[in-house]
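Hi, here's the filled form for the chain we discussed.

Project: internal
Contact: R.S.
Residues: 143
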Amino acid sequence: MTATTFRTDTVAGILGVLNAYITAHPAELLRAYPARPESLADLPAAFIENRPESVTHDSGTRTRTMSPSVVVVRRITDNEEAMTAFDTLIDGLVDAFTAVPQFATDTIWSAFTVADEEYAFGDYIFAAVRFTFTNITVMEGRA
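And the returned structure, exactly as it came back:
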């Protein structure tokens, strides 16, 4: 069996969507990271967090299904204008992710969840939205 790059390629694909969004909408999303950064200076920002997987085998293939999360964070405010801007960002990311059914060669996904939450980061609590891709799948040959 050849070495796999499924995890690396999937993270690069998701990060590519985030960076393309930043290029198209530089005032809405300021930074994107391939993993949780050490600090968050430029907000709103997004980062790829957990990457759990399940793996199944049959006689000729290995199927890997990853469920990574993308966390988008902003400062907590009670300002209606700031919340509307954040909702606009989240709606835009839903569209951007929907437009890319393959984050890497030979992968496919068909579902994700979007959940509001608070995200603890050091001494700070941020408003956050978590995108979880529930079924990014690749089938690989098995010797």
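Let me know if anything looks off before we file it.
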